[in-house]
Amino acid sequence: MSAIAAAPDRPVKLVPVSIAKPWGREIWYSGIEERGESRVLTAGGERLLGDYLDAVGIPRPVILLKVLDPHPEPVRGDLYFEVHEHKREVYVVTAVDRGAWPDGTGRIRFGMNQDMRRRFADDDEFRAAYLAAVREYEVIRQRIDRGDAVPAEEEACKRAAMDAFTSLKRLHPSDVVVVPTWTPHALQHGTRVAEFQTASYERYIISFAQKVLTQDGWDSEHAIARLRLDAPGEPVFEQVAPGVERIASFDDFGVWRAAVERGGPVALPSRGNHALCMALEGRIEIGGVELGPEEACLIPESGLGAHRITTGVTARCLIAAPGL
Length: 324
Fold this sequence. Notes:
This protein is of the alpha+beta class. The protein is 18% helix and 38% strand.
């Protein structure tokens, strides 16, 4: 343990753990759960992230950084359509599988269909009709989960009727999606993103086109009664320094996206009990830790004012910290 505590002001590279999902996999860089725990690379070798946090005095939980890597096949690679009451999330698109989306434009199911909404007398009728469509599809899904033979055309028809109430948003590499609370969302197949989120498992599942393995049933009625019906707005970015923009600002953490020019340093946040940094393009260096694309590090509070992000090429990275 002494090797961990020897340099409490130095960044440490995060060693991710891959978690299998029905729709693909999550790659956790700063996750601590029974299902898996990330590690850090220290002078004494790899250590569990939790042990490192305890040794250097970083309070738990830290911001959760992960990559969502869905299968490229339609339906199989589509995530849960869900909402969160408290959890905050921001996605940055890192890649779109051209086998899934030949034009290089991915998708996220995001919010509700406003044209469909206007067909109803009021929002209560809209919610009721949507819930009815979800429940009809859930019956099909339960039959499939029991092993019953359900014609593919029947399943597809009920799923399409349910999805008609929702909206699809087109996504390109480097696009940002900020997910407000109670906003329904489901990343679609073949669209890979880096995600910063509140370290919480809290969610309500509205629907899923596969068997849910983590809970019994869906939370459709509770979620649909509370979900936001208005179309989500486009994210607004604030320039905080030359080449640095704030792409998300939540109560518990914020995220910067930085363009690091050749030889030009970018300062780390001046506040927060820790920060996370992930390289997106090119290679960067922070306090002796080198990062390539989709590699990340954790910087303790005492290191925030001591280190800068530098590069020998033009690079882009993400930085997250509490209170940012």
